[in-house]
Amino acid sequence: MGAAPYSLRSMAAGAAVPVVGAAVALAVSARLFRPYGALISSLWQGSAARWPPSPARAVVLTGCDRGLGFSLATHCHSLGLTVFAGVLDAASPGARRLVDLGVRVVPLDVTDGRSVQGAVQVVQQALKDDARLSLSALVNNAGVLVFGEFGWQTPRQVSLQLDVNLAGTMRVTRAFLPLLRAGTSAGPGPGRGRVVVVTSHCALAALPALSVYAATKAGLQAWADALRMEQAQYGVPVVQVVPGSFTHLSGILAAHAEHAREMEAAMTEEDRQFYGDYPRRFHEYLAVVSSLGREASERPCRLPDDKLHEMFEAALLSLRPAARYVHEPWRYTLYHSLMRLAPTGVRDWLAIRFASLPSFKEKRP
């Protein structure tokens, strides 16, 4: 599935030489620098010293109805942190499960200013009620993904991704900054709360059919880079986390069938004549992942990835956190390394092969 268009297929053979050469260079480099791995890791990943987890340290997370947000909420709760889990739907299976576990669930629609202010007031009141409690971190995790070419997506779908992923994160962060600046006295020394921003591998290298989603995540990355410099003078760390590949467990594609129907309904007659059966083949290809997404939404669970949770622990608790934590399987590491080294044509070929999606087949007269 997902053969490259003819213009890229024709260059596949020529692309092999620089790709193989880059892979060999990476392997040699890894071998040369292996003795210094611990030092490089400590410099890259930030300080190993951490705040001890404590109920006096509060964490606010967005997008906890399912997937990564749900998993992080349960994990932080198990560490002994006080968790405020923001959920879009307080009656969702994930929200009800969190309540059963003893997590504080807070209705939070990141696209609604009044909802955001309501969540701030809930946390603010909790801080007033318990003088020992302070806001240690805000984790911006809420996100929406619509899978489909930009030319298919409706204005509503584009706006939804921009408003949730990018503007929503900004909206929530702006509202919680005063509480984060207020600081914390929990742990071995004073400090202020931090902002954690969940971005995506799509921010590092965009993929076809995820152009809008990638744009929102790349925007988040640029915004977080600038915000880190702005907030450093106030003692508020800003940390980016790029989680690994767990789309089938995240529930983020749970609504794909509905999005596909919306795209189909919005297509003009000219669109249908031009694309032919391509959109149908594309959406059918994603049906299995969409089904897994619905199942993950209906029965959210802790993600089976200890290294992912350990990385978030570092982002939340390190005294001197790294600017960015990246969690990825080895194939992602190799892929992104090649993408940084390869020329544009090769990068496009790699991205299309990596995504491995159905492709357009032009009808011949």
Automatic annotation (TrEMBL):
Gene Ontology biological process: steroid metabolic process
Transmembrane regions listed in the UniProt entry: none
Pfam families (UniProt xref): adh_short
Any one GO molecular-function label of the UniProt entry: oxidoreductase activity
Source superkingdom: Eukaryota
Keyword entries, A-Z: Oxidoreductase
InterPro entries (alphabetical): NAD(P)-bd_dom_sf, Sc_DH/Rdtase_CS, SDR_fam
Signal peptide: none
SUPFAM superfamilies: NAD(P)-binding Rossmann-fold domains
Entry similarity comment: Belongs to the short-chain dehydrogenases/reductases (SDR) family.
Official protein name in the record: D-beta-hydroxybutyrate dehydrogenase, mitochondrial
Organism: Frankliniella fusca
